[in-house]
């Protein structure tokens, strides 16, 4: 049994009870706090390897669009990002300079992809290659729950102190210490609860400035923090301020957040046209949520787009290739019905596609399996 109600998903258990947003019990929260801090510690332990193995490639196994496993080579830097972050577009604070007051023209916030390139330049190519990093202390100061995300998650804010040592720009040795705020999440679903931890942001106290004093990257980073914490009105204000900035349009997480808020009318008025525009930006940057939900819109011809099976399967296959379970399930259903292959796309169908309205009525209780009810939400 599969019930559609727009774009977001909730899970119902086999026993027929709604899975509600749950507060962690004492033991679970202790595990969450310890594992979140351990993730940050591992991040700093492995960070020097990005320099040491900058010329190495790693073979990974991925499914192609037809679901067949194949090998692909990626850089060690990319493997590092895949291990610790949601994607390459996560914003982090630029703490690479040993100077407490670095060049004001330097970017204070950048994506993790840019950050690691800068690390390679300052401490690798222009340095001695003897860079070291270490986490000295970690204190979890906040634990929260996002109940409206495409994949619900718990998050923690961790205040850490870290040390960098190395030869900066091949000129002098540096030994600098910084205090940073890390944001870590873990998914809340039966197969991943309190298991997979990833970093969704790295911040610095000096970025707690008025909106008008923030650089575009700082504003986008703060907007995404508010978005993850379900403070949508504030998130929208921070993100939409830079709607014409290329950096925002090329950030898969920021554009996904705007598409989500326009779809649900959270923080702004509902607009299908704006939702489609921002999800297109996000899908072009391979955000799996944007790929899947935009693909579904094209499949059903709803919410501001005309039906286009070819485009629908292009998007959903890419999300499935990246491991998004909802896309894999969608394709499996369609393949069973003879849909989705090159010969089937565009051919006359028997019956009609149906998806109920975006409203979310209470569905019948399942008897012996999970029921997925889809809608739209955040990041990735």
Task: Tell me about this structure.
With 380 residues, the chain is α+β, with helices and mostly antiparallel strands. It has a domain at 24-208: Nuclear Transport Factor 2, Chain: A (Roll), CATH 3.10.450. The chain has 11 helices and 11 strands. It has helices at 26-52, 76-84, 112-125, 216-228, 232-240, 246-249, 252-264, 272-284, 288-300, 309-321, 325-336, and strands spanning 3-4, 10-12, 57-63, 69-75, 91-93, 109-111, 132-146, 153-168, 172-187, 197-203, 371-374. The strands form 4 sheets. It has a 4-stranded antiparallel sheet. A hairpin with a 6-residue loop joins strand 7 (132-146) and strand 8 (153-168). It is globular, with a radius of gyration of 22 Å. The relative contact order is 0.15.
* Rg, Cα atoms, Å: 22 Å
Which ranges are low-confidence, i.e. pLDDT below 50, for 5 or more consecutive residues?
Answer: 1-21, 342-351, 356-380
- Just give the CATH class of the domain at 24-208: Alpha Beta
Q: Assign an overall shape.
A: globular
The largest sheet has its strands arranged as 7-8-9-10
Largest sheet: 4 strands, antiparallel
End-to-end C-alpha gap:
28 Å
Number of strands: 11
Could you tell me the CATH topology label of the domain at 24-208.
Answer: Nuclear Transport Factor 2, Chain: A
How helical, in percent, are the residues?
25-40%
Return the average pLDDT rounded to an integer: 80
Structural class: alpha+beta
What is the annotated CATH architecture of the domain at 24-208?
A: Roll
* Total of helices: 11
Written as H for each helix and E for each strand, in order along the chain, the element string is: EEHEEHEEHEEEEHHHHHHHHE
Strand content: 15-25%
């Amino acid at each position: 049994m599969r019930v559609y109600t727009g774009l977001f998903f909730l899970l119902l258990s086999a026993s027929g009870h709604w899975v509600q947003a749950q507060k962690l019990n004492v033991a679970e929260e202790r595990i969450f706090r310890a594992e979140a801090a351990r993730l940050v510690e591992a991040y700093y332990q492995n960070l020097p390897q990005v320099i040491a193995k900058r010329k190495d490639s790693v073979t990974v196994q991925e499914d192609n669009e037809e679901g067949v496993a194949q090998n692909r080579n990626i850089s060690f830097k990319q493997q590092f990002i895949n291990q610790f972050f949601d994607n390459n577009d996560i914003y982090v604070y630029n703490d690479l300079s040993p100077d407490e007051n670095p060049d004001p023209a330097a970017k204070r916030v950048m994506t993790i992809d840019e950050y690691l390139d800068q690390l390679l330049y300052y401490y690798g190519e222009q340095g001695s290659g003897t860079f070291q990093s270490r986490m000295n202390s970690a204190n979890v100061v906040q634990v929260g729950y996002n109940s409206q995300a495409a994949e619900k998650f718990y998050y923690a804010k961790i205040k850490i102190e870290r040390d960098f040592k190395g030869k900066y720009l091949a000129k002098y040795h540096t030994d600098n210490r910084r205090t940073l705020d890390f944001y870590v999440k873990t998914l809340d679903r039966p197969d991943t609860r309190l298991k997979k931890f990833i970093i969704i942001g790295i911040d610095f106290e000096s970025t707690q400035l008025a909106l008008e004093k923030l650089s575009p990257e700082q504003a986008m980073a703060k907007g995404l923090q508010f978005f993850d914490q379900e403070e949508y009105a504030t998130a929208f204000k921070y993100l939409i301020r830079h709607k014409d900035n290329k950096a925002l349009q090329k950030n898969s997480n920021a554009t996904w957040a705007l598409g989500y808020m326009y779809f649900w009318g959270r923080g702004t008025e509902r607009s299908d046209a704006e939702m489609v525009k921002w999800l297109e930006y996000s899908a072009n940057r391979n955000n799996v949520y944007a790929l899947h939900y935009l693909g579904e819109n094209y499949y059903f011809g709803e919410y501001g787009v005309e039906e286009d099976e070819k485009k629908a399967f292009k998007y959903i296959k890419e999300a499935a290739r990246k491991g998004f379970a909802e896309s894999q399930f969608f394709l499996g259903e369609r393949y069973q019905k003879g849909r989705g292959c090159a010969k089937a796309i565009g051919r006359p169908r028997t019956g009609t596609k149906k998806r109920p309205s975006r409203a979310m009525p209470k569905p019948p209780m399942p008897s012996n399996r999970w029921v997925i009810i889809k809608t739209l939400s955040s990041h990735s």
